[in-house]
Write a structure and sequence with these properties.
The chain is of the alpha/beta class. It has a single domain (about 50-295), classed as Rossmann fold. Helices cover about 40% and strands about 15% of the residues. It has a six-stranded mixed sheet, with helices on one face. It is globular and about 45 Å long.
Amino acid sequence: MLQNRKRWLSRSDRFGTTCRMVALSFITILNVASLASAQSQETEAAGGQRWAVILVGLPGDESHADLFRETADAWQTWLTESCEIPREQVLRLPQRTQENEAAAPALTSDSIRTTLAELNKKLKPNDSLWVFTLGHGNYDGKQAWFHLAGKDPSAEDFGRWFSEIRCREQVLWLTQSNAGWFVKPLSRPGRIVIAATAADDESNETEFPHALATVVQSPATMLDTDQDDKVSVAELFAAVVREVTRRFQDDKRLPTEHAQLDDNGDGKGTEDLTPTTKTLETEKLDGAVARKTFVPMNKKETSFHDIRSKDCDDTGSYTRR
């Protein structure tokens, strides 16, 4: 009787052990499947291609033509070398160099519209698109304009041109004067819209584009303020704002531009992304998307060159011809 009981207990222990092993195996399979799924989603999100578009408007005079070319060159070098975007996926309009300056056609509204429409056919849902504007602009009391050859496009025109673009990451850097008026028509939840000025009477020539060209030459370790080994769009924006402020202070000038970032879709930008007061949990602040969107910068150091606009125009202003 005792032997039978021992044999029964032995079989019971083996059965319990088997059940535990099966359960552990099942849990392991679930964990592996979950991890594989997460890795698959991460790979899918990271598997998109990166595209960039640089739009250079009318310079107005020879000194600004040189300045705009230098700034656009710095942007293009940063995008292709530091950010490692394929050269054929960095579209610069017009495609000018010092050698073909006179021969290259000036940028027009039609060329922007056509380029964006053609690019939109190539963009996949997981792709990333960064767009930069460089030039002059004005606000006439009703509309804001970006100065090009022929008819100037308005902020509403830009809103229509970008309305069909649906890729997962969109970062727009609008660096011309009166760029703040472009934020509202371009605003959309999840889209990062950065403007060199507020939607106010900020019509002077901007330091922002040249400050950006200077800041992106810094090693990534200098821009990574939270030390998470990555540089977010929010960190880059804040660094450019600091550089703009420094330039005005060094020249003993009153600031004539206040950069804005909008990524919550409300059409209202924010200059300082650090909350200064306790806000409601339901209130969506700007910066949430920008803090989670990262600049694909490598960590190699580049030769530093400070690009400034004050050398070409002491007045800091520009009048549409």
